[in-house]
Amino acid sequence: MNTRLLVCISAAGVTVALWKGGLGTCLRFDPDEAGEAEFSLLLKTLPGVPVLFMVDTVDEDYRLETLPRVGTADRRAMLDRKLRQTYRTSPFVSARLQRRTRVRGQRSDDEFLLAALTETSTVVPWIEIATELRMPIVGVFTAPTVTPSVVKPLGLSGRAQLIVSRHAAGIRQTFLRDGQFRFSRLTPLRGTNDTSVGGSVGTGTEIINTRMYLNALQATTADEVVDVILLDQDDSLEPLREAVAGAQVPVRTRRIGRQELATRLKIPLSAFEATPDALPLHLLGRSVPAENLAPVALREGYRIHQAGRWLMGAAAGIAVVGSAWILLNITSTRSIEAETAGLARETAELQATYAELTRQFPASPAPAQTLKLTVDAFEHLRERARTPEDLFAAVSARLEKHPTISLNSIAWRHSRAADAATAFATANAAPGGDGAPKQFGLLAGEITPFRGDYRTAVVTIREFADDLRRDPRVAEIKILKLPLDDSSRQALSGSTNARVEQQVGAQFEFSIVLREVGGGS
């Protein structure tokens, strides 16, 4: 809860209220040493609570100044110089931008409201008590500057409004133009009793005089109707409304009673009964005015207080995030631990099952390491081993196209020999040599039926060899033997006995080198 201490200072005394989202108990202190001592005791019970001072006295001054529009830094320097010139002796001053004007072809001007306390003897003792106790001071404000905050909740309309209310210090008249504060007057009640305030002829005359004074200030025109709003906290201002309404001035009066104020502004009725300053105190707690008269040095403690609260808030946020992160980690850790424990149980059960099963196995003839090496060696040999399957597949696929070819034998070797002749030199040739092993094949066959036509037989055999050479599995093929060498460099030889030639037949031999899987030609 944003707790604050609201202090209203006037010539009649000091009213203090604790704000906790609403106006709490109100206390009154007399403007003497005894009252100051009691006020000091109260502040000691509220260490670190921000304090807002509100001043309700006749020692206040407001002026409208029109200044040329300049940059931010230049405007600040210009306003500081203007305030020093206008209010030389008062440390409690402020300047607030009211509106901006711009005329085509002319310079742009800014209209500022200058405000100050011209007499500070009533205020300073109470502020000094707070500073001595190191209370964070939010600022010093005048009572009328809180009045604009009633316009919206009370549904007030009209461009010119004169809002009248009764406080402990007297009758306060505050003039608003378009909802902005422009001017205020305080009429002390000097001896007027509570029952006669509402019908006081003097008070009604003061309101009429204020209406005429607004014309002199050019805040209104002579025929402009001004809405006079009476905020009646104790239901005693009806005679005053009738007195103002009967005057021959252009005004429109309206009285808002205690019950309506309490309902619309959400002020406890008990607060109205406790102090006449309940309304301005409630408005101060609800909305802090921009017209802060306190010098920067006086507000330094509040800046430090706010920085500390921000750091505490940031630390609390970090703590919440850290706690959530720790909780998440704890939950995750417990989940992982539970999963690990479950896996450990499953592993133990599997190991127990394995041990139970292995007790039934016969004794191993060799150690487990030896068996592993044996299996690894077998796997290595199986990866490197070759079978005649590729050779048989290549030859059988081509035999279908050459029905006159008849195979008598097929030999196959997987060897590191340099060529097929070396690979098939002996039936038990060793697989020695250098380089990667290759697959060699030796085909022997003949032409059937053969009727003595050697040239046709040779052509058929060569076509068969060329067909085999085109097979992607064959890397190299050589013809080792033909039934007749048709080379022009060889002499013909043989018998003309047809019966003998038919018996001999047209035989041939090929040597084949197969490609290795993934290898080139």
Our measurement of the CA-to-CA distance between the termini, rounded to an integer number of angstroms, reads 90 Å
Low-confidence stretches: 192-196, 498-503
Work out the number of β strands.
17
The number of helical runs is: 14
Structural class: alpha+beta
Strand content: 25-35%
Gyration radius, to the nearest Å?
A: 58 Å
**CATH level-4 homologous superfamily of the domain at 3-59 and 119-294:** ATPase, nucleotide binding domain
- So what's the oligomer here? single chain
Report strand order across the widest sheet: 3-2-1-4-8
* CATH class descriptor of the domain at 3-59 and 119-294: Alpha Beta
Provide the CATH architecture of the domain at 3-59 and 119-294: 2-Layer Sandwich
- What kind of sheet is the major sheet? 5 strands, mixed
Kindly report the CATH topology of the domain at 3-59 and 119-294. Answer: Nucleotidyltransferase, domain 5
Shape by Cα distribution: elongated
Q: How helical, in percent, are the residues?
A: 25-40%
Mean pLDDT: 85
Task: Explain this structure.
The protein has helices at 33-44, 72-86, 124-132, 201-216, 238-245, 258-265, 269-274, 278-286, 300-358, 368-384, 389-399, 420-423, 454-469, 498-504; strands spanning 3-10, 13-20, 23-29, 51-55, 60-68, 93-102, 108-117, 137-142, 160-166, 171-177, 180-187, 226-231, 251-256, 405-415, 438-447, 474-481, 506-514. The protein starts with a strand and ends in a 7-residue tail after the last strand. By secondary structure, the chain is of the alpha+beta class. The longest helix has 59 residues, at 300-358. A hairpin with a 5-residue loop joins β6 and β7 (108-117). Helix content is 38%, strand content 26%. α1 (33-44) runs parallel beside α3 (124-132). Strands 3-2-1-4-8 form a 5-stranded mixed β-sheet, sandwiched between helices. It has a 5-stranded mixed β-sheet with strand order 11-10-9-12-13. Strands 14-15-17-16 form a 4-stranded antiparallel β-sheet.
